Amino acid sequence: MENGGAHAAGHSAAAVEIYPLSRYYFGAKDAFPDKDENPLDRIQRLKSNFASHGLRTCVLGVLLVELFRHPHVLVLQVKNCFFKLPGGRLRPGEQDVDGLKRKLSRMLSLEDCAINDNWQIGECVGMWWRSEFETLPFPYPPPNSRRPKECTKVFLVRLPVSRQFVVPRHLKLLAVPLYQIHDNSEVYGPIISGIPHLLSKFSFNIIDDD
Amino acid sequence: MENGGAHAAGHSAAAVEIYPLSRYYFGAKDAFPDKDENPLDRIQRLKSNFASHGLRTCVLGVLLVELFRHPHVLVLQVKNCFFKLPGGRLRPGEQDVDGLKRKLSRMLSLEDCAINDNWQIGECVGMWWRSEFETLPFPYPPPNSRRPKECTKVFLVRLPVSRQFVVPRHLKLLAVPLYQIHDNSEVYGPIISGIPHLLSKFSFNIIDDD
Predict the structure, then answer these.
(1) Which of A46, A48, B7, B158 places its Cα 20 to 30 Å from the Cα of B56?
(2) Which of B68, B143, B179 sits opposite A177 (nearest CB)?
(3) What would the CATH number be for the domain defined by A15-206?
(4) Looking at beta carbons, which residues of chain B come within 8 Å of A50?
(5) Chain A within 8 Å of B186 (Cβ-Cβ)?
(6) Segment A30-37 mean pLDDT
(7) Which of chain A's residues have a Cβ under 8 Å away from the Cβ of B148?
(8) What percent of the residues of chain B are helix, what percent strand, and what percent coil, each to the nearest 5?
(9) Where exactly are the transmembrane stretches of this chain (chains A, B) (predicted)?
(10) Which residue of B has its CA nearest to A94?
């Protein structure tokens, strides 16, 4: 952001440093297999997990880079079709931050098991709730006091000045500008398209190459 | 929120206490006059202010009450038509919190000038930017490095257990549920309809009457 803008934001805005996309390196690793043959299998699996473990908790990471002086979000594209944020389901008893580090390493690092791959997990910027596994998530708990089935927490991940991302071959990692995902739930789904809202309280310090 | 939900949200969620609508009292006071005859006058006034003072900064308050065990936002309806949050433009040099207290008192208190009417202004939860006065605001600064014309900051206001609201007669104060404003930009405009996103990182402790 321009200095003028950062100043205008005043003391109330927390600053996030973001670095140019050109500072990062991208590689590929073996794909990992699908857990489900089709969407119905998936729903069945989620229901059976809910019966055993209760509320399903997912953790997702928002990773930001700069391009054309505008923040871009790193999103994963699955099968040239839908988009998701890196992250996934917590294991029973697992802490948010530990689970997110594990998932980020699995999806973005050379070594799957490098859980402490220096991921710097920042604050939780939003939570989404599903009252049924088949329905859309909402940014508030179900109002009719039905037991929610799934809670998805979105965390801001602070990237270092430079690093390598190694992505499984069945996924593509894309940098998408905030202005493209904003209000574009049709293409990116409600969670990704809501990221500009969740980040709007921050001011961005763009650290230039030059 | 149910205890189960609050627990599920874990340590990452900040808690906000909200009280039933029935704890609050509502009265009316004299209307205050419109600044502008019509929308064109308004644009002209904003442009001339921008020429004199630069970036226009607005501060808005999100005030929450509970009804049917779901958070409701207090919104003002103007002329049975459009909706806005209590707040308004900062005077040149005025601090965010001081300006918001002044505006809240003007719109919601018996005494216009009771600036320190015990308003407890919480964190800034989001910022909206306009690159032109005629265009919609976006939850990020204009990407093409044009100078923004307006920045609107949205603050969470913590209400006490009980209080009186005194509203000018040309405005109506309504409590609207999060599920009604979510994704409903057509009726409530982009800023109000985005509030559920901005609040989604909080868990709500509903303090019951009984």
Answers:
(1) B158
(2) B143
(3) 3.90.79.10
(4) none
(5) no
(6) 81
(7) 5, 8
(8) 30, 35, 35
(9) none
(10) B10
| Confidence category of residue A39, pLDDT binned at 50, 70, 90 | confident
Do B198 and A194 make contact, defined as CB atoms within 8 angstroms?
Answer: no
pLDDT tens across B118-166, in order?
899 999 999 999 998 888 999 999 887 678 999 999 999 999 999 999 9
A82 touches chain B (CB under 8 A): no
Percent of chain A predicted with pLDDT > 70: 90
pTM recorded for the entire structure: 0.91
CATH ID of B17-32+54-206, from 3.30.70.1140, 3.90.79.10, 2.60.370.10, 3.90.1150.10: 3.90.79.10
Residue B177 at interface with chain A, using a CB cutoff of 8 Å = yes
Nearest CB to A201; choose among B57, B125, B177: B125
Among A residues 113-172, those touching chain B with beta carbons less than 8 Å apart: 123-129, 138-141, 143, 145, 147-148, 151, 153, 155
- Rounded to an integer, what distance in angstroms lies between the CA atom of residue B179 and that of residue B71? 9
Q: Which residues pair with A110 in a beta bridge?
A: none
Q: Count CA atoms closer than 13 A to B209's CA, side-chain side.
A: 11
Instruction: State the complex-level ipTM.
Output: 0.89
pLDDT of amino acid A143 = 84
pLDDT, tens only, A84-126: 999 999 999 999 999 999 999 999 998 765 556 689 999 999 9
